[in-house]
Amino acid sequence: MNEVSFARKFSIAESCQRVVEAPLFNQVIIGLILLNGVAVGLETSQWVLARFGDLLYGINQLILLAFVVEAAIKMAAHGERPWRYFASGWNCFDFSIIALSLIPAAGPLATLARLVRVLRVLRLVSAFPELRLLVDTLLRSLPSMFHISLLMGIIFYIYGVAGYFLFHDIDPTHWRSLPIALLSLFRIVTFEDWTDIMYTAMETMPWAWVYFVSFVVMGAFVMINLFIGVVLNNLEEAKLRRLDELQLPPSQNEILRELRATQEALGRLQKRMEQSAAPAGEEGATQ
Question: Is the pTM of this model over 0.70?
Fold first, then answer.
């Protein structure tokens, strides 16, 4: 009985695993995520909401049911260890969104429920391996970006203090205090009409362009290139890690599937040999 029960459980897990690995399954989930995004966008129109509110509500409930079924299938694909579903960070992300989607869309939490429906669109990231790779790269780049941001903060502080002492009498609108000076530097580093600030300072100090040009070079060009270099470096490392993951040894379920397929192939081959041997034996008896 135990062997029959184990075989039945393995058969269910194997069937669920085939469903999860099927390209059509992922395509259906992507389609539902896109449909959810369109439905949430239509809810922003009062005209649509007044005429098709019930239909949009029904679509939302069907999509939520489909996401719950998807999570259940993925858990069942792990057989007797469904908790292995949560070993993947992306599965935890998807499950969190699904769990939050169960918040009732009425009462004080109605606004939160609508916002969660919008967050379901983020599941597109987990549905595409390329997007997952980019997000993983950005997350792994955060420690290095923190040090670059710290260096950038030091440069901002030095130029902010210097700008206050140099230009607070000339242009009090942009340099009257250290916080305003830092805000002006942020405007300069984003290239938002920064030349107007520079020309105002140059009316009294013709050499003020040295301050602004040097800050643009340090604060924009150098720092942006450092950020890009860190992201590209981590992107290459993420690609190498992905290649290593693809070369990992097969899991227990994969080995069992291959063994079962081999047994079935051997069984079919044995039947063919028996069928081919039977007519030969009948011919020898006739002779």
Answer: no
